[in-house]
Design a protein that fits this description.
The protein has 47 helices and 17 strands. It has 1016 residues and is α/β, with parallel strands linked by helices. The protein has a six-stranded mixed β-sheet, with helices on both faces. Strands 9-11-10 form a three-stranded antiparallel β-sheet.
Length: 1016
């Protein structure tokens, strides 16, 4: 805690003056030298001295900063200056407050002094301590300025309340009349607070003239033209920080060598030269790196930053250079690291490289630590020292490095925290805590250090956060940034390539919004003839196929030196894509976005065998996961080193790459089922779908994006083959339960699922594929050997749902619609249709005739089933969220309508409906939109069904009440015969039959027909 006296000392106020000031204010600057009441009175009487000393200190800030020999010392001076203006603003506002008494009259009588001696919780004590804690209030670059204003108002309100509480009971207060006390309370509350905030703002502006950091710490709304500007390579960071480092000495020795290594980074290409096709000029980081937009916030607790919805509460900012300048000069960053989050390919690592190069050598010592290359089990200090050695070739210890930096503050750039989490599990979930502890130790040793840690957004919830940590998330490129990037790319390759246009890229904006994927699109366009084919943009599946194939073809060409025939090249390309497809299934079937090299090796061994013989086709050997995947541009490899062993995980730069590859392989495997021919033609033999079952029995393919890929890939299959394949898949659906007595790929276990769940998931994928191939099918087609195919569809839906979590079931259920109808033979039928991309519509109404096996439009008598209460009970058994929501909504229906739920009234040529259904329509539908015929039909249906309901039940009374209430509303539209029917019903329930005055039905009838109960 920085006290007011400490702040004055840091700002260069003479110690003798501070001592004299403390004596003059009764020891208020040091509670140990005086009692609470005495110090407060001293502060009030000596307010002029406090204001004078504070003002002089503020005026001398610029001179004091000129004597600061270290960046950390400069930060402490600024912190002290801010502490002073918070306190001085309140005393100036108090001094000018319009009070109904003079502050000079505030004093203690002898009796008041005796009363306050030894008292606990004295308001004056609280007030002094409140003022001494002014250091807690400090602007932060991640918080809007209005948040600081609110904090100041709260602080000054508390101080004013404590001062008023102290005055209450003193002689000066008791002499005031009621109106005077009211005026004093008003002055000490709202007026004093508002005035103190205004004076603080004025003093803050004065400090901003002396020190630019005060401008960095306040987020200001930039002009629209400035916001739209696209900034490059953090070039504003050095400019913004140059003035604040003007008086500091540049680093020397190893620190200088480290700075030189960082500076060289800006001249390197944004991609490894071996990644780019020959002849293509890849611009440097200095030319090509665009400052990303971002959101920034301080997490509360452990939840938030990994959740997309959490970030939506915070505005997108476009002033990254200004924010970083504020964060790097703020005292807070020396106590907890800044956590930089982003998707794969968002530019987190590149940000650390550019920032390390842009920080001014005088004032900052950036140390970039790529965690993927450092032993994970080492202490942080050892990791830092190893990173310095790798970057400079020189051995040094951490204290020696800091000393060689002169007055510069070390800035740790710890890149790839997510790689530690992914490769080592929970072993390093406390890494951020350990970084904060390291900062605390260094601060205690007089070597304050700032820290920035990068990580993927999706694993942020697996980390433990230290108090005070701030999280920053990099945002995807907006269209203006993509267009600016394209201009730079086209300028760099103006003599080599046809310009890549925004119109061509805009069709694939989701990919182009990530910097690395935008680069991949540009490289593909440069080598494969463009994103436009014959003037038309590529379809999504065409783009993915071309992208993945072109990069695979380049890798094959590197390994073969383009010395093999084209046919063999294409075979090798296909094998490479199938390798990637197995990675995609490794992710899909584990329900996460990454897979470890160990898990992948286990999958490959289980599916292909450890010592497969080289051959053409799918069963070619894969080799080690690292060899198979490490070279692919669109696969990101995360790694860490533990006990000398490299631990790796893999993920796709964009999740849709994995989804496309999984769907691509699934379609190929299912199409291969058509190629099987039995050895004998005397009968059907078992279809060998073991590999398809192994891969397609752990996760559904029904997500929106995968379904889109399925539709487009299936659309390329010739129509005749589509029909044959659909029939073959129906056969597999029918047979796989009976014929799957063993499992060829039993060792393939990406997830621990029950056999029944795997059967359900596999079936659901087969049915989904049949729908994709045909567009629509029927229950009878899916289950051709079963008479009650409609019932079997329902049972299989329960199996599929039991195999999926709620999100998976939602995706699957939303992928199709159903239609109940009667077949040509009059039996019940069910049509299932693929839904497409149209908006979700209401399900078709259900005809109770269909449910209970009656013919279409069957008339006849009302019928009833007695198990309504069993239906209600069964709704609560499963206890799933969706079922429980429906039950929660329907509880009043079951409780109040009872048997009406299972009492059905048919009409010749029309659907049959339940009494509850008709009654709810009368109650909830907009009857003004109904025709008179439809409205009267609802009344007749309810009346017809009521003859089957028990008259003495509470439900019957409720139905009568609702029915008669609706009748009063619709009396003008109800036909004569309908009214007569209702009146006959009422007369049949006359008061003579209901003698109990508390009977629910009697009360209903008495309310609606009071004349029936009038006694002569």
């Amino acid at each position: 805690m920085l006290s007011f006296a400490d702040a004055l000392t840091l700002l260069g106020v003479d110690s003798a003056r501070i001592t004299a000031l403390d004596r003059a204010v009764g020891g208020a600057l040091n509670l140990a030298t005086g009692g609470a009441s005495g110090t407060l009175l001293g502060m009030v009487s000596g307010r002029g001295r406090i204001i004078g000393a504070g003002r002089d200190a503020v005026h001398g800030v610029a001179e004091r900063l000129g004597r600061a020999g270290r960046r950390a010392e400069r930060t402490e001076v600024l912190r002290a200056a801010h502490t002073v203006i918070v306190v001085v603003a309140w005393f100036e506002a108090l001094d000018e407050a319009r009070l109904p008494f003079s502050l000079d009259d505030v004093e203690l009588t002898r009796g008041e002094q005796l009363r306050l001696v030894g008292a606990e919780g004295v308001a004056g004590d609280d007030l002094v301590r409140e003022l001494l804690s002014a250091d807690v209030l400090f602007p932060a670059p991640h918080r809007p300025p209005e948040f600081l204003t609110v904090d100041l108002q709260s602080f000054y309100t508390t101080v004013g309340d404590r001062f008023r509480q102290f005055l209450t009971g003193l002689r000066v207060w008791e002499r005031l009349r009621d109106q005077g006390q009211f005026e004093a309370m008003t002055a000490l509350n709202s007026e004093l607070v508002d005035d103190a905030v205004r004076k603080y703002t004025d003093l803050y502006a004065q400090l901003a003239l002396a020190a630019p950091e005060f401008n960095f710490w306040i987020t200001r709304n930039e002009h629209q033209a400035t916001r739209a500007e696209v900034r490059r390579a953090l070039d504003g960071v050095r400019t913004l920080l140059a003035e604040s480092a003007a008086h500091l000495t540049p680093a020397g020795d190893v620190a200088a060598a480290l700075a030189q290594a960082h500076a060289a980074t800006l001249g390197r290409p944004v991609l490894d030269a071996t990644t780019a096709p020959e002849g293509i000029r890849v611009p440097s980081l200095r030319e090509m790196y665009l400052d990303p937009d971002f959101r920034v916030a301080e997490p509360q607790g452990q939840s938030g930053p990994a959740d997309e919805s959490w970030w939506q509460r915070f505005e997108v900012r476009q002033d990254l250079t200004r924010y970083l300048a504020g964060a790097l000069t703020s005292p807070a960053l020396a106590h907890a690291p800044l956590l930089v989050l982003g998707q794969p390919g968002a530019g987190k690592s590149v940000l650390t490289r550019v920032l390390a190069a842009r920080l001014p050598e005088a004032g900052f010592l950036p140390v970039r630590v790529p965690l993927r290359d450092i032993r994970a089990e080492e202490e942080l200090q050892d990791q830092i020292e190893l990173a310095v050695r790798v970057a400079t070739g020189e051995r040094t210890t951490w204290p020696e490095l800091v000393r060689s930096a002169g007055g510069s503050t070390p800035v740790l750039l710890l890149d790839g925290f997510d790689e530690l989490l992914q490769t080592t599990g929970v072993h390093h979930n406390d890494f951020l805590i350990r970084v904060a502890r390291f900062q605390q130790r260094e601060a205690e040793q007089g070597r304050p250090v700032l820290a920035l840690v990068t990580s993927r957004t999706s694993v942020a919830d697996r980390a433990r956060y230290p108090e005070g940590l701030v999280a920053l998330r990099l945002e995807p490129f907006r269209p203006a940034q993509i267009q600016h990037w394209l201009r730079l790319w086209n300028e760099a390759n103006a003599q080599i390539l046809t310009p890549l246009t925004w119109d061509a890229v805009a069709q694939h904006a989701e990919l182009a919004s990530q910097p690395l994927l935008l680069t991949m699109l540009a490289l593909y366009d440069a080598t494969e003839g463009g994103l436009n084919r014959d003037g038309a943009p590529l379809a999504v599946t065409e783009l993915y196929e071309e992208l993945l194939s072109s990069f695979a073809r380049r890798e094959v060409g590197k390994s073969t030196r383009d010395a093999v025939p084209d046919a063999e090249t294409e075979e090798r390309v296909e094998r490479e894509l199938q390798r990637l497809s197995l990675v995609a299934f490794a992710l899909l079937n584990r329900h996460r976005q990454w897979v470890s090299s160990t898990e992948l090796d286990e999958d490959l061994t289980a599916l292909l065998g450890k010592h497969a013989v080289a051959s053409t086709g799918f069963r070619a050997p894969l080799g080690a996961a690292e060899i198979a995947l490490g070279r692919f541009f669109f696969v990101q490899r995360s790694q860490s080193v533990r006990s000398g062993q490299v631990l790796s995980t893999y993920e796709f730069l964009h999740a849709t790459f994995g989804e496309y590859l999984a769907v691509r392989l699934a379609v190929r495997l299912l199409r291969d089922l058509l190629k099987q021919r039995p050895g004998l033609s005397l009968g059907e033999s078992r279809i060998d779908d073991d590999l398809a079952y192994a891969l397609l029995s752990y996760a559904p393919l029904a997500s929106r994006q995968m379904l889109r890929f399925l539709r487009e890939l299936a659309g390329r299959i010739p129509e005749g083959e589509r029909d044959r394949l659909a029939r073959q898949l129906i056969r597999v659906l029918r047979e796989h339960h009976r014929t799957r007595t063993s499992e060829e790929y039993a060792a393939y276990r990406p997830d621990d699922l029950r056999t029944a769940a795997r059967h359900g998931l596999y079936e659901s994928n087969l049915v989904l594929m049949v729908l994709v191939l045909r567009g629509r099918t029927t229950a009878a087609e899916l289950f051709p050997d079963v008479q009650a195919a409609v019932h079997l569809w329902g049972r299989h839906c329960l199996l599929w749902r039991s195999a999926m979590d709620e999100a998976q079931w939602t995706d699957f259920a939303l992928s199709f619609t159903t239609r109940r109808y009667w077949g040509e033979d009059g039996t019940r039928a069910l049509e299932i249709s693929l839904r497409g991309d149209q908006a979700l519509d209401h399900p078709r109404p259900i005809d109770a005739n269909w449910l209970f096996g009656f013919g279409e439009g069957a008339g006849g008598q009302t019928w009833q089933r007695s198990y309504w209460d069993e239906i209600w009970h069964k709704e609560s058994v499963a206890a799933t969220t969706t079922d429980s929501i429906v039950r929660h909504t329907m509880d009043p229906v079951f409780a109040n309508l009872g048997a009406a739920v299972t009492t059905f009234t048919p009409r010749a040529g029309e659907p049959a409906t339940s009494v509850a259904h008709s009654l709810l329509r009368l109650l909830l539908d907009d009857v003004t939109a109904m025709s008179d015929v439809e409205l009267n039909d609802l009344y007749r249906r309810v009346h017809a069904g009521m003859a089957f309901l028990p008259v003495g039940s509470p439900q019957f009374a409720r139905i009568c009440d609702v029915l008669l209430t609706a009748r009063e509303r619709d009396r003008a539209r109800i036909r004569l015969e309908t009214n007569e029917v209702l009146d006959t019903l009422v007369r049949s329930l006359g008061p003579g039959d209901i003698t109990n005055p508390m009977d629910p039905l009697r009360r209903v009838l008495q309310r609606h027909y009071p004349a029936l109960f009038d006694t002569p």
